[in-house]
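Thread title: Can someone regenerate the structure for this chain?

I was given the following input by a collaborator and told the matching structure tokens would be attached. They weren't. Posting the sequence so someone can regenerate them.
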Amino acid sequence: MSLDLINGIQRRKTREITVGSLKLGGAHPIRVQSMTTPKTEDVDAVVKQIKELVTAGCEIVRITVNDQRAADALPHILKQVSIPVVADVHFDYKMALESMKHGVACVRINPGNIGAEWKTIEVIQRAKDTGTALRIGVNAGSLEKPLLKKYGHPTPEALVESAMQAIQLVENQGFLNFKVSIKSSDVINNYRAYALLSAQTEAPLHLGVTESGTKTYGSIKSAVGIGSLLLAGIGDTIRVSLSCDPVDEVKAGVYMLKSIGLKNDTPEIIACPSCGRADIDVYSLAEEVERRALGLGKNIKIAVMGCVVNGPGESMEADIGIAGGKGEGLVYKKGKPIGKVPEAQMLDFLMNEIERM
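Best answer:
Regenerated them for you:
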């Protein structure tokens, strides 16, 4: 598989596919994905959450379609949202057919539970007819029984064999508009599985560490598991799977990409960890700056610093920054001081300057 240098990282060049209005793979940006948590039939709650996810930076959203009520809700959801919707289907292949009838951008099927081969072929044929993308989603927790018997455990090799069997089936039907995920909750096995798979297919890869855990531990686990793959040039879409509000999943994914130069439409916040030298409330100021700046779509570096040791230097190196002193702060813009403001006015002053940039 060829490599392309993108933002300093040698990304593996995968096949380009189309998911709704988005192009994936090739040299296209790595997309951030999440999944809704309300029952799908609760249309208002699902739409509300999707809009919150979009504001946070979500570009693709997955919705469970586990029964007919969920499938019937899809057209009411689709007409109200602006990003591609992936129907998440397990066990019942007919729900995949129903989802495509209603116009979803992509259907996720799991080789471990979709059933007989003819069912997958019927899904593939419908996808060809409707122009729908597919995602082959292999999970360590739902591996096919023959593979578990062969390998004893959901090893990286077992996961890859499952994925490659499904890939070959799909490609033998003349269908190439698909992506693949191959997830484990074990970071090492997850890395090895994706590394093995990336050497065997040109299909775009969706990255994630499945069931990674709580907001704190899961974010760290995902940063290691997904981040290491991204630095190795592997991956075309990502989802940080956390046991919390999915908006936090999206933020974690966005900042993960930002931190290694693979996302250029969101700000980077530099903030000191604070200590006894700090004379302003760094924590609250940095959190609020991040919350308000996230949706502005600006590729800028913002420094929020609490004292005079590193504050001036970091603030001058940022596009805009503030170095706190006793109850006040000196604001820098493009390396030059532009004003000294009281602590109570710091946030509004800083945000007004950011919005003008």
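The chain has a mean pLDDT of 91.
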